[in-house]
Structures are given as C-alpha cells and as structure tokens.
Amino acid sequence: MVKRSFPLSKVYQLLEPGPVVLATTARKGRTNIMTMSWHTMMEFEPPTVGCVISNRNYSFDILKATKECVINIPTVELARKVVGCGNTSGNTIDKWKAFHLTPAAASCVTPPLINECFANLECKVVDSRMVSKYNFFILEVLKAWIAPSARARRTLHHLGKGTFMVAGKTIRLPSKAK
Amino acid sequence: MVKRSFPLSKVYQLLEPGPVVLATTARKGRTNIMTMSWHTMMEFEPPTVGCVISNRNYSFDILKATKECVINIPTVELARKVVGCGNTSGNTIDKWKAFHLTPAAASCVTPPLINECFANLECKVVDSRMVSKYNFFILEVLKAWIAPSARARRTLHHLGKGTFMVAGKTIRLPSKAK
Fold first, then answer.
1. DSSP-assigned letters across all residues of B72-134
2. Residue B177 and residue A158: Cβ atoms within 8 Å?
3. Within an 8 Å CB–CB cutoff, is residue A13 touching chain B?
4. Is the CB of residue A86 less than 8 Å away from at least one CB of chain B?
5. Residues A30-49: what's their mean pLDDT?
6. How much is the pTM?
7. To the nearest whole angstrom, how far is the Cα of A107 from the nearest Cα of chain B?
8. What is the pLDDT of residue B151?
9. Cβ(B70)–Cβ(B23) under 8 Å?
10. Going edge to edge, which strands form the sheet with B163-172?
11. Can you tell me the distance from the alpha carbon of A9 to that of A45, in angstroms, rounded to the nearest whole number?
12. pLDDT of residue A16
C-alpha cells in the first residue's frame, strides 16, 4: 500500500475515535504484532499516546526493553487478521506468516510498519513510570504515515468478545474544537 | 430514561470502542458537564479508566479537588448538545439549562447522571500522580447504569474539528478475547 507522510499535528484525528490497532515490536531480529484497544491520546504536539499492554503479552517485555513500537491502524477488511493476532502469541508463532501480513521498513524506529494498514505511527516510549503498576506506556509519535486513498476509514472498534463496531457514517457540526 | 444497574465486569465493553463522553462534576451545589474523548480502559475489574482533562477546563479543578465524576455516554441524537458542552465553559453558563439536559441523582457520588445518556458510570479518582505532568486522572468505576432499550448504540467518535464518526454496523468473529 502506497503511503505518504502524515502531519504529526493531525495524529489525534486517527486515534481519538478509538480504533483497534496493531502494535509491532522488534528485538534481536525478530518482530511481533499485537492487537490493542486500550489507548488514548494524551497531548496534541508532539503527539503523545498512552496505552495499556498486559504483562502477559509477549510484546510487553519487548516494548519495555526496546522502547520502540509502531501503531498500525487496520480497517474492517483485516478483521480476521486482527482477531488472529489477538488470539495467538508471538512466543509460539510468526504472525506475519500466519496471517499474511507484510512488514515495511520504518524510518525512525526498528519495528516494521504493517503494509496492509492504512495508517502507521512510529513511536518511542517516553515515560515508563506507570508500567509497573498499570502496564501503562506513554509513547511519543515520531513519524506518521497514511495511505492517500484512505478517505472512508472503516476502522474496527472492539465491543468485547470478538464483537466489533465498524465505523459508520460521518457527520459534521459547527464546532470550535480542535 | 429508565436505567438498570449494569455489571461492573462489562464496563469495558462501553468504553473500549472509544466513544465521546460527557463527564459531570459537582462542587458547592453547582454541577457542570464537560465533553471528553481522551480516555482509555486500564483494568477490567474493578473497572479502571484513565482520562485526560485539560487544565484549561473548568472541570479540571473541580475533579482534582472533589475526586468524583460521572462518565455519561451519549448517542448521535445528542450530537448538538455534545458539541455545545464542548464549546462552552461552565464558568460562564449553566450547561444543563443551555442544552436542555436533565440531571438525575447518582447512588455513590455527588455529581449527577445525565438522564438523556444511555449509560452512566459513577467514578472516583484513585490515582492523581500523572495529573500535574499530563492532566491524566485514573478513575475507578463504582457503579454503572444502562438503558435497557439501548441495543443499537449509535455512539459518537470524534475525528477532529466537530467531525464525528457515528457507530456503524456490528460484526462478530470467533475470538478468545475478553
């Protein structure tokens, strides 16, 4: 999927609606993919994201040690792969092969972008103080990518137990909000 | 709107999809409403929620001092009221009157529920350590309410600048996820 650079000042527009994302990590030449829904924007610029990653996940130790990840945003076409990545562990399988996903080189971090996702956010951990108590990492987005064709973003929003709301229509109201 | 008690173990199903919410606070007999999109689940049980509230908001000082709020979840029918609450300050107007919203008594906290919202989560602040640096409050949900009729929850998801994605169709995939 062809991507163009996306302004860091607009990253909140991608994460604020609450999509399920796929986080990629890398260590010692091995890369992994994790499905994640517990994240929030924390600051507009530099774009800062808080996310919870269970310490039972294979990706937890990798992120804690390497302090780098990519947040990849999938649309509904990837729903089965998203569930697949969430139901398996990188400790026992290669999720790229198992779910036919394609890595692409990032520009600022070691973990790869997922080519099939319409947006990719290269991140570094900037604050780990809440990791031991809450498994909560604070990330700064260093570089963002988007597919120019991704106008109608049919993102996935987890309602629990494998049920997802798919992004519906868009409405616009006069607002002073950023 | 008639409400029934909602199991605390299922609260994540309401917030994980990332809806815009209305947070109510109370101090010295005055109550206020704030529109909020920057929140995430942090733990299933007790349901724990992290949220960012700008220190420029009238509600920030109230929540910091009183340590209580209610998270109310609106649907698309309330879109204009949601934008109205986001574009005004409780410092200068009474949002209940301005936007024709109705308070209802909570059972565990002082701030009121918004009757027109299909779900209401009574919360107390349990960790303020990240407030000074990130305006980030960690809340525990003490009691949850839901309208029994709220099957198709057409929640709002902010895409920036008054543009909202409205919750679309629901899909279900076999999954081991909670």
1. EE-BGGGHHHHHHHHHS-TTTS-HHHHTT--EE--SSSSSPEETTSSEEEEEEEEE-TTHHHH
2. yes
3. yes
4. yes
5. 97
6. 0.97
7. 26
8. 67
9. yes
10. A156-160, A163-172, B163-172, B156-160
11. 6
12. 98
